[in-house]
Amino acid sequence: MGEAPLDNRDQIDARVTDLVIRLILLGLFIVLALTLVRPFLPILVWAMVLAVALAPIHTWLSNCLRGRRKLAAFILTLAMLAVVIGPVAALAASLVESTHRLISHINGGNLKLPTPPESLSALPLIGEKIVALWSLATTNLEGLVLRFREVLAPLGKHLLYLFSSIGFDLVKFMVAIIVSGILVLNGPELAIWGRRIAARIVAPRGEKFVDLATVTIRNVSRGVVGVALLQSILISIVLQFAGVSSAGLLGFIILILCILQIGPGLVVLPVLVWCWLTMPTAHALLLTSVLVPLTFMDNVLKPLLMARGLSTPTIVIFIGVIGGTLSFGLIGLFLGPVVLAVFYDLLLTWVMHPVEPPPHITPGTSDKAPPQE
């Protein structure tokens, strides 16, 4: 005589136990997969963002090359690497040369600082202190360094850490450019897979969300790069007319800083200080009145360009850009507006969708069945 079959409750308990075990194993598998991918996640995210942003350029270039998609992807990847490596190499070479020259002057005892300008002492509160320190530096630079060694040593460590972090981020970004070249080559196939995954998650609006994310990424990339180019060119022209030396190099530095969302202030502010110390007041005032609006013009142009062609309000894109950058760094510049744009569309759909009563309930009637006679 065989075992008696399980009753319905035992069958439900067995199915629940089986489902819980499967979910636990699936969760462990997902955690393990994410742990393995986590070191490469920033590179992959950057590669996907670059691939989406560069897809129209790749299509245009492949059409110019008579359908040679691989050659177009190769040329586009080399061009992107050149845009990143070129200015970095020029800055590194200039920094090495300047450092070598400084060390030579220090070893030869020929390092001399100019005397402080007389107008500097007229500054309220801090003018006399700056003149005193400057005068000490011109007569006894070694003594000044020894006097502030407790402040300069931690500052040097922080600068070294900052430069090493920037270098590591640049290496990761270059790897992301190479990966984006591979992704853009397989763009149509990856787009199909992305639409399928989105359809499984948020059907039937998955394809719309994919299109929304694509347009948002491209608008943000155009806004960032376009405004950065405009700012760097205009500021370089102003510096050239003002007689500032190395205006072209400063323009390249401003371009990189704007793309990295640091802004041109790190270059413009020291230039303005130098102008006020060395130029006549009228010239310095005129230069300040021109450079200050150019420095902050990205705060106005970027939201307008990023929201162009989108149904999402500009304020949503702007909040996504600022919040994403503050929360996740440069990659948040793209993730923030994409997430908020999709969330806004979901919220709008949920609010505007009419709420229909269940089929067995009609307005004005009770949900109880009428009594039987």
From TrEMBL:
Any one of the GO CC terms: plasma membrane
Superkingdom, taxonomy of origin: Bacteria
Localization per record: Cell membrane
Alphabetical keyword list: Cell membrane, Membrane, Transmembrane, Transmembrane helix, Transport
Topology of this chain in the membrane: Multi-pass membrane protein
Transmembrane domains' residue ranges: 19-37, 43-61, 73-96, 160-185, 223-242, 249-276, 282-301, 313-344
Homology family: Belongs to the autoinducer-2 exporter (AI-2E) (TC 2.A.86) family.
PANTHER family: TRANSMEMBRANE PROTEIN, TRANSPORT PROTEIN YDIK-RELATED
Name under which the protein is recorded: AI-2E family transporter
Native species: Paracoccus aestuariivivens
